[in-house]
Amino acid sequence: MSKEELLALLGDAVADGDGDKAVDLAKEAFETGVDPMEVLNDGASKGLSIIGARYSSGDAYLPDLVGSGAAMSAVMDLIFAQTEGTASLDTQGVVIIGQSKGDIHDIGKNVVSALLAVNGFEVHDLGTDVSVKTFYEKALEHNADIIAMSSLLTTSLPFMDDMVRYVNDTGTRERFFCIVGGGPVTADFAESIGADGWGQSAFDCVELCKKLMARGNPGSGPTIKVDSQAEGRA
Amino acid sequence: MYDIKVQRVVQNLEKSYSGRIIPMHEWDNKIIPSTTKAILKKHGLQGTLDLENPINCDDSLADAFFKAGWELALELGFYCEDTERVIKVSEEELLESIRDYPDHIVLGEGQDAVTMYPRRPESTVEPLIEASLGIVCSEEIYLPLVQGIVKYPKLVDALHGPSLATVFGHTIRSGSPLETLAGHYESKLKHEALWRAGRPGMCCVGVNSAITEYGHLGGAAEVAGRGNVTQSLCPVEMKVTFSNFHRVLHGLNNGHKLRVGAFSYIGGFAGPPEGAALTCVANDLLVPVILQSDYTSSYVYDIQLFGNCGRKALWANSVSTQAISRNTGYMRNKIVNQTGGPCTEMFMLEAAVGLMNHCVSGASISTQPRSAGGRYTDYITPVECWWTGEVFKSCAGMTRVQANEIAKALLPRYEGDLPASDKGFSVYECYDLKTQRPLPQYQELYSRVRNELIDLGMPLNNVYGDTFAGMDKDVKLHMSL
Ligand code: B12
Predict the structure, then answer these.
(1) Chain B residue numbers touching A101 (CB-CB < 8 A)
(2) Helices (DSSP H) in A45-131: which residue ranges?
């Protein structure tokens, strides 16, 4: 099998969420002398693009995204071991995500979480009903770049305000981007609480996180608002 | 003594301490997708989605979904998030529940009481409407808004009501002590609004400001007995939490009927529309057993469209609703999730197609409306409640074939806008809370769309012959603000 064929198969295995097959193919690629970074960029990562496109066209579903994310992680672990930790496998950034206190609506947040993961972010999903303190402690523990809060309930929005004030009051505002989203969360609301960013959909959230990572300097600059459907809505 | 339901709930709670242990991640991402897929395959149901015919007219397909849903219910049961164990049910339990199920339920009391009946597809029995759907409104307009919602006795049968984000001007945080107070306060406001509207015995459903069980504990006793209802909604897919059990037990403690729901998502863990239809059938079978509901509140939702008025969700709701209507006497609440907001044609068309579908497929009741997806404070007016009542009730007696043709004619008028629909206008911009009338632009829109749909074959003048002027003869409102 040619190198190209092998890498294409690897991409398909990641897209299909078949972790075992992806790991076997990656091993085979190393054995035939393919550079680990090529395995990553021209093989496994392609699979993530494939699954992203399948999801947005309605041909793949939430568990498929999760499966691809897991297959990708398995390949990354292997590459990391292969290069004895020297490969620069820098993630796009580290994200702590969860559903605001009191809120158990988690499907939208799960989609955001999975899409961030398939787009190369290291995601720590804290689940539902997460207190401001837990968000903060986990952000410190994982040395996060971004704290992403989701809420579908108007009565759980005040916790987003609490979060931004908490990082301010603990003198750590410049360490974490605070971003918000979910049903009732509007761009104006995000701005009013001094969040770094807001996104309308899960795809917008990925865009938003990339923009923030490129911009740098949490807590400074205007709230970035991403709404790819805005034109249709106007 | 206690209702027999209490004993059964306790038995199921016990099961939640002894069932098989599974990590939640595995339940969501492995067990639900693989089991759903395998059962669809076994019953030949993969690829049965019919986008050209969004309202299913094929009885044998509905029956096949029933058989497959029965199997799924028995194979999986519900997952208890708090104990990370599975609550399974036996075939005997499923059969016993169907056998012992009542042939009607009375909601409310006195002259405001209404009766809900099981409905088969194409039933001529009028279904019921509970309004509105817990959309947040400003505290100062709660009373007049509710008065308007229940204004026309033939359109709205039970009060679900808006919910609150402040109490005495203080911001409510979910699960905080203010939520406990808000639950009580909301129940009191509902009583007063119903009394002002001249419908004091109308059934109150749920405590909407009860984000957690605290709000419910705060408000349930205030609306005890008198044919009122507790609502308890389960996480997706096929899961239950102690918060659900808390609400059910509060409800039973207070002599309430129980409305319990478990939703299914197209694009979520159950995958394609066929998968969501299948889990929806299983949910409608399991909820009455595990949480002892008097009526269920399960339906299919499409996560990519943020609602259920697109073709895929219409089809999945039609086939799953018909599956249960044709094979059991269960009464079910089926919700339409509109995405358009108040005073938009989008909302009116989504509501018309969605409710016509639920009606001809055999739903007994619907909680409405979900104006603008229910997202924005004060984006709810009484008019959407009335419209959903007119449509849902008027369609009783239509055939599925007729409904399918009308759906096919209306869908192209709105489906392209579904991913980015118009949130419309807030109550202040399109409704007069003093006169309890829509503002002229909304009144015109309402009459225009209503007439267009009548011309298309929807018998919307079945309940009230004429809009507004005709309807007003029926108003009991005896006090304005
Ligand atoms: C399904 C549902 C439920 C399910 C949730 C199941 C689950 N596991 O998620 C159940 C039945 C459990 C439920 C319960 C309740 N619900 Co509910 N629910 C809904 C419903 C119908 C759909 C929500 C949904 O999943 N949408 C689809 C997802 C994909 O959208 P999304 O979450 O917004 O996420 C997208 C974007 O917002 C974005 N995004 C999400 N998070 C983030 C984060 C960031 C940082 C960014 C950038 C972007 C982003 O990306 C996602 C994908 O594109 C909505 C109504 C509606 N039409 O939206 C009501 C709704 C949210 N619920 C509501 C209410 C009131 C309740 C209850 C309080 C009812 C009650 N009294 O018991 C309880 C609360 C329980 C609790 N403590 O949380 C209200 C909230 C009103 C409000 N403004 O506060 C709504 C709006 C219904 C209404 N009134 O019309 N609910």
Answers:
(1) 173-175
(2) 45-56, 62-82, 107-118
